[in-house]
Amino acid sequence: MSLENKVVLVTGVGPGLGKACAVAFAQARAKVVICDVSEQSLDEAAQAVRAAGAECLAVRCDVSSSREVDGMFEQIVAQFGTLHVLVNNAALTPNREVDTQRRNALYRYMSSPEPRRSLGFTSQISDEEWHRYWGVNVHGMFYCTRAALRLMEPQREGRIVNIASIAGLSSKSAHSPHYCATKGAVIAFTKSVAYEVAGANIFVNAMAPGGVATPAFNGYLDAIGEEARNRLWQGVPLGRFGTVEEYAGTVLYLAGEHYLVGQVLSPNGGSVI
Hints:
Blueprint: E1 7-11, H1 17-27, E2 31-36, H2 39-51, E3 56-60, H3 66-80, E4 85-88, H4 97-111, H5 127-155, E5 158-163, H6 177-197, E6 202-207, H7 215-233, H8 244-254, E7 264-265
Parallel strand pairs: 1-2, 1-4, 2-3, 4-5, 5-6, 6-7
Helix pairs in contact: 1-2, 1-8, 3-5, 4-7, 5-6
């Protein structure tokens, strides 16, 4: 499927993978819709998309609200008439100070001869923290998918790419059980919906990336020091994280012509084989 003049929605276009995907679709000559809760991220992504020569509709939207998602799709239909590709990228990620502490504790435990014990992560997660992750990472994916299918099913054409994570496939992100649970749900949802809608020529697949070399994570790597970084790379045979452009290329592939239904592609540098 050529992406030229196709209408593509990428959710969560803050600095990192979402913005890179939006620009990649713009370079493929698609018409690009982007959304984010941050006005600054939205503006920066819109400028990058337009600089790549694509028509762009930028909508501030909290995907955890079905009302806001439905309002966004009304704008999509008003401007473009339909939707051909949905990339469910919007997600909460574990990037607060307590998450950094948990991550460091896990990496030390994985790479040091410490006595075996419970790391005590799950018992310290609050109700509010648990529900926040499910609201964006799972409910938001469902709301956007539901709205997209209402356009794709009648036209018998569509591609949906759900951004999961190796956190949903392995113990690599055991420092964030709430995040792992939501990304596992993304994978299960992908497989179920893929079977349901394949007969309508709608292809639903997921990408489960490993570590992403975003500015935020590069900053984390700089902060933890050489010894901790070397411990981290022990679990990544390639010795580095993937760039946002490398991951965006996989998303672009899943949005095109292929024979994949309900599959999970996991570019991760060998972290999970």
